[in-house]
Amino acid sequence: MPGALAVTAAIALLVYGLVEAGNTGWSAAGTLLPLGAGLGLLGVFVAVERVATPPLVDRRLLATRPVAAGYGVMLA
Q1: CB contact burial 29-63 (16+ within 10 A = b; e otherwise)
Q2: In the chain, which end has fewer C-beta atoms inside a 10 angstrom radius, N or C?
Q3: pLDDT (tens digit, 0 to 9) for every residue of the chain, 76 residues total?
Q4: Contact in structure between 7 and 45 (CB atoms under 8 Å)
């Protein structure tokens, strides 16, 4: 549950920060604070998932080339 909450909040903050960048500019506090908080929460997600049993994302799944390529394409 903590990992799911962390990643959900992180993605929401990142999206909000990107939307605000179009409205207020990239150097505005309304853009930088949500983006920074979102990146911080992604770090929390990674830390939580390293010790979680079972994790939300299995690291062995990410090691396969087709899955990693698919995630890379979605990220781009």
Answers
A1: eebbebbebbeebbebbeebbeeeeeeeeeeeeee
A2: C
A3: 888 899 999 999 999 999 999 899 999 999 999 999 999 999 999 899 888 888 887 778 778 888 888 888 987 8
A4: yes
Helix boundaries (H) for the chain: 2-24, 29-51, 59-62, 65-75
pTM above 0.70, yes or no: yes
The sign of the torsion formed by the CA atoms of 25, 30, 34, 36 equals positive
Alpha carbon 55 to chain centroid distance?
15
